C-alpha cells in the first residue's frame, strides 16, 4: 500500500509541476543580446515591458491592462532576400533587429506595422509565437527539447513503478 501511495505522489508531482509554474520565455531586445538570451517568467509586468519596447518600433501596439495568458514570441527584422516563415535566417540575410520575449496574446505581434517608413520599405520580418516553455529560441541544434525531458521523466516513472511493484 505504501508503494502505491509513493508512486501516486511521484506521479502527481511530475504532472503538477507543469501546471503550477508559469510560462517561461527566452528574452532579449537586440541581435547582440539574442546570441545568449536570458529566461524570463511571464507576468503582466514582463509582458507590459515587452509592449513598451515594441512600441519603439511600432506605432500601433495596443495597451493591455492585464491578462491571465501569455505567449512567447520571436520577432526578427532583417534585410536581404525574403525567406519563408518556416525557414531560418540565411547567410545572405542581415539581422537588423531582434526581439525575444513574453507578450500578451492581444498584442498580435506578428501583425504590427513598423513606424519608420524607410524600415518598412527595406526590412523583412520573421515572426513566430508559441505557448510552451522556452519555445521562442532556435538555438544550437544540440539542445534538448521539452519532449525529450517528458520522455526521460516517463521512463523514470515507469522504472520506479516496476521497482516498487
TrEMBL record:
Keywords of the record: Membrane, Signal, Transmembrane, Transmembrane helix
Q: Where are the transmembrane segments?
A: 137-161
Q: Which residues form the signal peptide?
A: 1-22
Origin, by domain of life? Eukaryota
Q: What is this protein called?
A: Protein quiver
Q: Which organism is it from?
A: Drosophila guanche
